[in-house]
Design brief:
With about 280 residues, this protein is mainly β. It is about 5% helix and about 25% strand.
């Protein structure tokens, strides 16, 4: 999809750059494939605010996406491509040969009328889903499971992808876009190609109100606060804190490791910050 720019008829439109979604479906989603979505506004079950800068936003329904792709050897036709307010990628409505419908994350280089299929020995083309053991080394993939039957967790956002770089001992070596190389069981499913809407990274939001529509309220810097509200607050004039960046509760925000799940370290072949 192309990008749209606008005449500077207002300050909010002067820098505005949006995705041209004229080629997508104009109506609403399939009702049977949606469910209600509740927004917490950053509050927990006691009504206390536990996440700052959240609230408001447009009402939306959740589109139920098939992240498992376990309906094997049944061809499906892409009926239409749709916008999904819950994610940056586009979604595709597919019609299986037996009449069942489902939503999947739309890959790049697929269009209405194309056929996709999931299975162990299907063709290597965008939109088809296979176990990692059936995918040739070097293939670009997305929607990757980390555990068999759990559903895709890796490379699901707009324009993202990973690459299968090796295989052995029941594991596939997958290079992520961060540079990390990770071992994933060969029985996990992945979809061929990259995720749709790669131009999402070039969007310029234009004004704060567009983020409010997404449920993101204005984010206030710590150095603009008073000392009672943030460790960076206070000082004469525009001071920049006078200390290393910290959270409102005094924990360092740069440097210290925050990874907690050490049990999967054995599956990381190369860290993302290594050469």
């Amino acid at each position: 999809m192309a990008l749209k720019t606008f005449n500077p008829t207002s300050p909010g439109r002067r820098q505005l750059v949006l995705i041209d979604r004229s080629g997508l479906h104009k109506g609403g989603p399939v009702k049977a494939l949606t469910e209600g979505k509740h927004s917490s506004g950053g509050r927990n079950n006691l009504g206390r605010r536990t996440a700052r800068w959240r609230g408001g936003g447009a009402k939306k329904s959740y589109r139920i996406i098939d992240f498992k792709r376990r309906k094997w050897n049944v061809p499906a036709t892409i009926e239409r491509l749709e916008y999904d307010p819950n994610r940056t990628a586009f979604i595709a409505l597919i019609n299986y040969a037996d009449g069942e419908q489902a939503y999947i994350i739309a890959p790049q280089r697929v269009d209405v009328g194309d056929t996709v299929i999931a299975g162990e020995g299907v063709d290597i083309k965008p939109g088809n889903a296979l176990p990692l053991k059936s995918i040739p080394v070097g293939t670009i993939i997305h929607n990757i499971e980390m555990k068999p039957l759990k559903g895709a967790q890796i490379a699901r956002s707009a324009g993202s992808y990973a690459q299968l770089v090796g295989r052995g001992d029941g594991y596939a070596q997958v290079k992520l876009s961060s540079g990390e190389v990770r071992l994933i069981p060969e029985g996990c499913m992945a979809t061929i190609g990259a995720v749709s809407n790669p131009d999402n990274m070039n969007v310029v939001i234009g004004k704060a109100g567009r983020n409010v529509h997404k449920g993101w309220r204005p984010h206030v810097r710590g150095v603009a606060m008073n000392p009672v509200d943030h460790p960076h607050g206070g000082g004469e004039g525009k001071t920049s804190g006078g200390r290393h960046p910290v959270t409102p509760w005094g924990k360092k925000t740069r440097g210290p490791k925050t990874r907690k799940n050490k049990s999967t370290d054995r599956l990381i072949v190369r860290r993302r910050h290594k050469a």
